[in-house]
Amino acid sequence: MPAMHDFATWEPLLRILRADGARTPAAPGGHLAGRIGRRGWVRVPGRPRRGRADRAELDAVERVLRALADAEAGDVSFKAEISPTGATALHLLDPGPAVEPGPATVHPGALLLVEGALPEPWRRLPDPTPGAAPSPSADPALLERTLRARVPGARGAAEAEIAAAEKRLGVTLPGELKVLHRVAAAGRRGRGGEDEAAEHAEHAEHLDRAVGCELLPLERMYVAHAPTRPCGWRSAARQVVVTPPGAAVQGLVGSPGWIVFAVGGGGDPIAVDLTPGPGGALGQIVLLDHEQVIGAELLADSLTDLVVNGRREGRRDRRWDQPRPGARTDLARLTNPRAAVDPRLEVLTTGGWQGAPLSLVPVMGLSRLRTLTASPGTLADPLEIARLTALEFLELGPQDWRVLLDAGAVPRGLAAAAIEVHRDQDPLPVVELANEILALRDRPPITRTVLHGDLGPA
């Protein structure tokens, strides 16, 4: 029996949770619950955290984490039912490979109904830019002279190494980027010397200052396809891709034309952009902000511009983070629900709608409506969802899901789904409901293991 399935492993943590419980676990419907794993741990219910956890709590959490590591297990949710005498039933819930972890909750996150499926914004490819041309500032000869003056004695990459990088990446490197590596490749020493490591570090520092960012070695360069910017389905399905007229950068999650060759001071990838927006230049330099999952920030019109003139302030092109009119609608912000009826509508949320329950009839037939998130009690007839034929993501409360399941009306085209629940809701019925939804597509279920023990009277 692995240690994670030994009640003694969990006992110290359960004692702390019982002592901190905001309500009596033995009361009708009362329970203690939490989630623990590599990303930390949460507990429900519990007293508000006041500063750092004490030593006993840290030790109890570490005890469980070691057991999870030994069992090569990921995040595990749990529910403890504790009687007044201390008799305890501990339910361990392993989400398995078909469930994303929920945000700061013990409940399941998004249910992955199609293995490997990505939300539509993560499947979006760049729009063609047949008229795109390099910026007038692109000057490989000037770039080479500038680099040789700033990093004298630097040793660049051989043509065979550059060719190997192009083959690995599946793309022809632009001329300026080839010049950069021919003159001063990252990861190489400038001069011989006894202290090789120190000289290497000095060379790297000089090179970073010369380019204005931390240059990646050829073997670490990569193409920033959409999967390099991961995002959970619950958030990703609500995103909308937009590239306004005249934008320099296309509002994409990733692109086969974003060749990451360096990183900024905050660790953000910096790329040469070979798929610019309608107002951009071929080979412009963009930064992929780690706080954003769509679009990129324009840094310079060319690599020569970046090296010679440095990163300029005021170059932000953030129009891509504003959705197209009508593409995303939160009904809670509207006084007239019919304002959401737009042929461009992709994402519809009922949010905190306070009016009479809504009918979905007005949005039926919208061919681009791919995401619907409806809070409990906001839909007049959940069965109308079956007539939204383009849905790929659906989030509902447990009662609305029950209606769809009982009627066999869950849309066949869903790639992912989610259940909206309150934070302190009993996780076991939610898990049972989630497993019913997963079973529709023969996906691996959330597994439950029950451990029994005795904590003694409180």
Describe the structure.
- The model is unreliable at 189-195 (pLDDT under 50).
- The two termini are 28 Å apart.
- The chain is an alpha+beta fold and 458 residues long.
- The chain has helices at residues 7-20, 55-70, 120-123, 140-150, 159-169, 175-183, 196-211, 233-236, 303-309, 398-407, 427-439; strands spanning 32-37, 40-44, 76-82, 87-94, 99-101, 108-112, 214-215, 222-223, 258-263, 269-273, 284-287, 297-300, 328-330, 347-349, 371-373, 393-396, 416-419, 447-454.
- The protein has eleven helices and 18 strands.
- The strands form three sheets. Strands 5-6-17-16-15-14-13 form a seven-stranded mixed beta sheet. Strands 7, 8, 9, 10, 11 and 12 form a six-stranded antiparallel beta sheet that branches. Strands 2-1-3-4-18 form a five-stranded antiparallel beta sheet, sandwiched between helices.
Concise overview:
The chain has 458 residues and is an alpha+beta fold. The chain contains eleven helices and 18 strands.
Mean pLDDT: 86
Low-pLDDT residue intervals, each spanning 5 or more residues: 189-195
Ends: how far apart?
Answer: 28 Å
Instruction: Tell me the number of strands.
Output: 18
Give the strand order of the largest sheet, numbering strands 1, 2, ... along the chain: 5-6-17-16-15-14-13
Bin the helical content.
Answer: 25-40%
What structural class do helix, strand and pairing data support?
Answer: alpha+beta
